[in-house]
């Protein structure tokens, strides 16, 4: 009599074995694709002519360092790749893993280079490289100074679970450090958004989407890395079974799709991103020069520079022949406004003047907006309603008292 349960069990075991191999190969493929994408994207940035050269190089270095991470994973945990690496040279082990300690730092510097016009590395920035330097010295002493025969013996008997306990805490610190750098990137972005209104009147033209996706995407991946590390520690040290490997594998796919998206989206990002000055916080209580205040008011009233859609703090200061920092301080301290509010309030007054004219009763709101200097319909409508208490259409109806206006 045929035991159907026996054959069913054998079929199930074979199916699981095949699926394990298929999934394993699929995950290896995702890592290989990520390596290829990072290197390709980096080469594209290095040869790119537009944008800030410094920023392009920093982003390329970040991508190249990130390419080393999946390569390290393949060498250490990919069965086929691990054996190939051992046959090639045991010296390749633990080299690419050093990228963990530097990729997040490079991304932080890239963000700063985009945000600040005058970005440069400072002596204090060496602190960000200390973990990399310390771990490099550790690996040289504990691994690279060993002879090849000793290295091969260690690798042949290697089991991840048999790693010393302290290495798990080093890995946890590493992932926390990477996440910390990611949080600093978000802080820099928040600071940029807070201060950009002090230098630009048309903030709608400044596209932060690409940079936000880059920063937040990799921050999520680093948080996942912390969860993966904690899951591994819990499984090994507390014997609570957590599928930390699956979390790590999902993260690998996320990186692949994130890099793919960024490659397609990046073609136009550098041309619309505008940097701000990296100003040290200085408490300045010197009295405002009223002569300069009068000069600004007279210039705004007579020359109407706000009608220029592309007006910003820098070119207005050049027109006034006044340092941009002085102009910014006068606007902030005397007029109690940022540059965005200061310029757009003049534009609102201009649009009110245009809407009051009977000859403009048939003129569209888009034309009124354009003549007043606005470059964004959303900014025009929002600012007008906030300043006047009415929409532009309601205001024109109230001023002209007519029902046949062109909406």
Would you spell out the secondary-structure blueprint of this structure?
Elements: H1 4-47, H2 53-77, H3 79-88, H4 103-115, H5 130-144, H6 148-156, H7 165-195, H8 209-237, H9 244-265, H10 290-303, H11 313-320, H12 324-333, H13 339-356, H14 365-372, H15 377-388, H16 392-400
Helix pairs in contact: 1-2, 1-9, 2-3, 2-4, 4-7, 7-8, 8-9, 13-14, 13-16
What does the model show?
The chain has 407 residues and is mostly helical. Helix content is 68%, strand content 0%. The chain has 16 helices and no strands. The protein has helices spanning 4-47, 53-77, 79-88, 103-115, 130-144, 148-156, 165-195, 209-237, 244-265, 290-303, 313-320, 324-333, 339-356, 365-372, 377-388, 392-400. The chain starts with a helix and ends in a 7-residue tail after the last helix.
């Amino acid at each position: 009599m045929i035991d159907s349960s026996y054959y069913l069990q054998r079929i199930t075991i074979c199916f699981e074995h095949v699926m394990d191999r298929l999934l394993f190969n699929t995950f290896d493929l995702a890592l290989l694709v990520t390596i290829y994408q990072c290197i390709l994207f980096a080469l594209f940035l290095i040869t790119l002519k537009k944008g800030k050269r410094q920023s392009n190089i920093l982003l390329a270095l970040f991508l190249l360092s990130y390419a080393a991470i999946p390569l390290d994973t393949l060498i250490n945990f990919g069965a086929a790749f691990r054996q190939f690496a051992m046959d090639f040279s045991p010296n390749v082990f633990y080299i690419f893993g050093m990228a963990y300690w530097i990729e997040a730092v490079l991304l932080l510097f890239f963000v700063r280079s985009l945000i600040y016009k005058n970005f440069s590395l400072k002596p204090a920035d060496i602190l960000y490289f200390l973990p990399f330097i310390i771990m490099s010295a550790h690996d040289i002493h504990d691994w690279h100074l060993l002879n090849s025969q000793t290295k091969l013996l260690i690798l042949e008997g290697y089991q991840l679970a048999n790693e010393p306990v302290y290495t798990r805490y080093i890995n946890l610190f590493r992932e926390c450090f990477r996440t910390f750098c990611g949080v600093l990137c978000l802080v820099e972005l928040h600071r940029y958004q807070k201060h950009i209104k002090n230098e630009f009147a048309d903030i709608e033209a400044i596209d932060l989407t690409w940079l936000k996706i880059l920063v937040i995407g990799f921050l999520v991946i680093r948080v996942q890395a912390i969860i993966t590390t904690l899951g591994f520690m819990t499984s090994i040290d507390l014997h609570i079974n957590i599928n930390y490997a699956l979390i790590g594998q999902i993260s690998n796919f996320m990186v692949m799709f994130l890099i793919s998206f960024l490659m397609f989206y990046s073609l136009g990002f550098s041309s619309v991103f505008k940097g701000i000055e990296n100003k040290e916080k200085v408490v300045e209580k010197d009295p405002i020069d009223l002569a300069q205040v009068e000069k600004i008011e007279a210039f705004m009233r007579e020359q109407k520079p706000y009608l220029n859609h592309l007006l910003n703090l820098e070119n207005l200061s050049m027109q006034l022949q006044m340092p941009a920092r002085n102009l910014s301080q006068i606007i902030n301290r005397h007029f109690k406004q940022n540059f965005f509010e200061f310029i757009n309030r003049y534009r609102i007054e201009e649009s009110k003047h245009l809407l009051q004219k009977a000859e403009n009763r048939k003129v569209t709101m888009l034309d009124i907006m354009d003549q007043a200097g606005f470059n964004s319909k959303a900014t025009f409508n929002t600012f007008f309603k906030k300043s006047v208490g009415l929409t532009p259409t309601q205001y024109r109806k109230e001023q002209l008292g007519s029902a046949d206006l062109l909406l």
